[in-house]
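Appendix B, example 12.
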Amino acid sequence: MDDELFEALYHIAWKLWPSRERRVQYAGRTIVLMYLWSVIRGKPRQWVCHRQNLPDAMTEADIPSSSQFGRRLRSARVQAMLTELENHLRGVPQATMLGCWLLDAKPLLVSPYSKDKSAKRGWAYNGRARGYKVFAMSDLQGRVVAWDARPMNEAEPLVARTLLQQTDRPGYVICDSI
């Protein structure tokens, strides 16, 4: 299943960015595909920088070191490519229609022994816990319109304001009591 998903993303990436950028050693398309492969497989970013871990479609590509991969992944051009891919996969709805979105947050707990300094204490399922929250806004068909991951102590109404700014038309928001 992972291979089939990556194969579809691989063809979309080649359709969106058929030519290679100038003045870079590693194409942004390669960086995006490597990042997506690590996400699909649930592995850390350094894992994908080893040739034996790459899918068959990418075994012939030049691959960067893990430090170069991290720098290119944070670059504005690669981030724009990821946004472009996300918009392409989501599909752009008609801006003239009135929208209706569902908004919710889900906690992502970290181990109590974790040394992650950006993981904060906040409210989770059964009380207070340490970790992060994923805030997501989806349309009525279940497609994610906007999302953000923040420390667990961030309030849902405050993050909702930033998510609402990412919508492309007026509409209604359905959410829980928080």
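Residues 2-16 form the longest helix (15 residues). Residues 2-90 form one domain.
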